[in-house]
């Protein structure tokens, strides 16, 4: 069973050398934490401009974890959460809601640098 779903910030901050993110990834790679990521996280990583070296680091980080498919059931949950929000809020929070839905489906904790937006949708969120 998966214990954790990593938000995009975990990967970016680990690459930048931030200790909390490195500790979470290290725990996952060494089997102390069963961690996964959403395809939305991969999308957000690859959307950023980066050097070839950074691309290789991110690719290796993603390979070390389980990718959890984003399904129509999860899409329905996300739509229910976002429906009551304004258009600008829906656009700003859609990716976080999709990652939160992924964690919800697993009963896992979301690890992120920015817990507030995730907690709008899912209470099991931890800052690293």
Helices and strands: which structural class?
Answer: alpha/beta
Fraction of helical residues: 55-70%
Indicate the radius of gyration in whole angstroms: 14 Å
H and E order: EHHEHHEHHEHE
Number of helices: 7
Q: What's the CATH first level?
A: Alpha Beta
Give the DSSP E fraction (strand runs of 2 or more residues): 5-15%
What is the first-to-last residue Cα distance?
A: 21 Å
CATH H-level superfamily title: 5'-nuclease
Low-confidence stretches: none
Return the CATH architecture.
Answer: 3-Layer(aba) Sandwich
CATH structural fold name:
Rossmann fold
Instruction: Indicate how many domains the architecture comprises.
Output: 1
Strand tally, please? 5
How much is the average pLDDT? 96
**What general form does the structure show?**
globular
SSE layout and pairings?
Elements: E1 4-6, H1 8-15, H2 19-29, E2 35-37, H3 39-47, H4 52-63, E3 66-67, H5 72-82, H6 87-106, E4 109-112, H7 115-119, E5 125-127
Parallel strand pairs: 1-2, 1-4, 2-3, 4-5
Helix pairs in contact: 1-2, 5-6
Description:
This protein is an alpha/beta fold and 128 residues long. The protein has a single domain (4-127), classed as 5'-nuclease (Rossmann fold), CATH 3.40.50.1010. The chain contains seven helices and five strands. The chain has a five-stranded parallel β-sheet with strand order 3-2-1-4-5, with helices on both faces. Helix 1 (8-15) packs across helix 2 (19-29) and helix 5 crosses helix 6. The longest helix is centred in the last third of the chain and has 20 residues, at 87-106. The protein is globular.
